[in-house]
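hey can u check if this looks right to u? its 330 residues, i copy pasted from the old doc so theres a chance i mangled smth
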Amino acid sequence: MDRSSLHTPQQKRSIQAGHAVLMHALADRHAVIAELIGDRPFHYVDIPVHGNIGDLLILHGTLAFFARYRLTPCITAPALSYRPHWIKPGEAVVFHGGGNFGDLYDEYGMQALREAVVAACPENRIIILPQSIHFADKARCEQSARLFRQHPDVHILVRDVPSYHAAQAFSDRVYLMPDMAHQLYPLAAGGRMAGGTLMISRMDAEKKHVGLAGGFTLAATTDWPVVVGDNERRIDLFRRALRGMNRLGLGWIGNRVLSARWTAFSGRLIDDAVRLFSAHERIVTDRLHGHILACLMNKPNIVLDNSYGKNSRYVSAWTADSALVSLETV
């Protein structure tokens, strides 16, 4: 049951205040990342150029973090248009965070790029922003860990305790850290609230296929691909442009020109999600960033798990103390 519906107005104000304190504290934990980067020039690598709102929230949270600590990347690039030979002596490589450290999304090449940079740049500091780690193939995990272990200066930030333990096989420099999207707190609601409960429900391989035990009547059910909708064609144009410039040997220039435009466009996709959330009283979701977006907007939310426990691990590590958050365990 949504606990917030049982409270008086005064209690609700107290709950909101407690939630705000927690959210600011989570964002403040990222200060250690600024210390790890220090005064090194750095590359921000593997940014998402797709319509997953969760990854876009991480992107914009990371950019907000850079602005907060007055850090400016030499280059910002997605995996599809980045080349490890661009890295110069003394530069650091900062990898985008998320939930793709492992073999679940091998076909997209993010883990392969991390491994390529680790192998090619033994003298450069490598920082992997907060990730959830999941390998389905034990041999694949062991192979990747052996490669990482050969590098003397890899720093891995992880979003939950099981990932923290898993990361010990890859590096001795492991940090438990909340998701970068927390840098966006608070996100103001946009539009008029119609009320009711919105469900953001996965349509991909991470779906667990469980029911909601709380007995809520849902006003609407959707997922990030539906929210993005017709914008997918424009997203594909960005990907094609980046790949095309890379093939022409203009990848560095292409990333510098197009990353700013992509940031602006992807910000509008986040605005669409914010308007959708604003129209509902509470959120039910098996998307980690459905939960985090609701927290950024001070919305009561009920969290269902994904296929391998990422969501419950995250709530247990960071947001369980908020009275706006409920975790369904069925």
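The chain is about 45% helix and 15% strand.
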